[in-house]
Design brief:
427 residues, alpha/beta, six-stranded mixed beta sheet, 47% helix, 9% strand
Amino acid sequence: MERLMHYVWQYRLVDPADMVTVDGRKVTVIDPGRHNTDSGPDFFNAKVRIGDRLWAGDVEIHVRASDWHRHGHHNDGAYDSVVLHVVDCDDVAVERRNGERIPQLVMRCAPDFHKRYDGLVGRSDIDLPCAPEMGEISPLHMRDWITALAYERAYAKAERIMEHLGRCAGDWEQTLYVTLARGLGFGTNAEPMERLALSLPLHFLRKHSDSATAIEALMFGQAGLLPERSDGDRYADSLKREYAFLAHKFSLRPVESPGWKMARMRPANFPHRRVATLAAFVTGDFRLVSRMVGLKSVEDAIALLRTPLTGYWATRFTFSPVGSERMYETMSRASAMVLVINVAVPLMIAYGMRHGDQELVQRGFDWLVEMPAESNSIVGAFASAGIEVKDAFTSQALIQLRREYCEKHGCLFCRIGHRLLSKRARR
């Protein structure tokens, strides 16, 4: 409730006719102040006219006026600067430590405003509680919000790469290796894949990059995916022997509780295939940064990321003594485009930002506009609500909206929620 009151005050959603203190003086908000999320008054440095007098100071907001005493503000010097006390229930007068009474305003909103807010923020039983009213948002405002969200998501991914770069002492290849590993997890197994890559630094793997068996033994062993019983699978036996030797030689231990997920997953997406794909990228050395940032088209990026699996993993989804008679596709075109979105584009943006190459940054965003929209439940929900989703730029924006606002009940900070709520705030 108090959070909602902060929102109403910050965005001046109370009808000016209702801005009157409890003793009858008109209140005009010139500046609502800076919202404070730490200790002290709720809004710093506000400017309000009360009656015929202009005040500059702080504003404190409570559900009940008596909370002023319950929270001990009457004995706290930090609250002597409060020039207006905004409340929902005026049940007591409040004073500063020197006995001066503080002007008090009862915040009056539309009768159904709280109910509407609870209907948006408190509904966990449906994906998009605002879907029935999405059409009330003008196309111009919707496009503006989608653009902001797409940039927000892309720069957040680029920032994650920059953070990795800092931890990797400026090593771009190691940074891309970890980013690619996470991307190959495709959401479901992103965290385990990242932990695997972090447990096997690239500089260590390069010592064995001339041996596909050694690379796969290290990766599957560290991942905890080597079978306990091989049941006659000679390749699995060879990997187990190789890993036992290397683990003893270099004092390696498998990743603790990697958390691999396989339930309700298509065999092509099993973690074994993704680990084998990462091993294929590393075998023969891993020098992809210059190649990736030098790509000129989305098609080139797709081709680069669809590294084929040969030999054992060309006919298997997991360890098995007998492979299939058919050769399986390493990665679908759709999966490769997801990697372009989550690996190639963020790398281009981060690399361009770091080296002052705005053309490279812009190329990353241009690719998002060129690529078709992703197909998933999040995009489908927004499409059903009437939002046109024609490219990856838009689908990425909607994923950002869902993850960072809808799932966190951040309707107050979503431009859609803000517009829907602000219409209903005033009586």
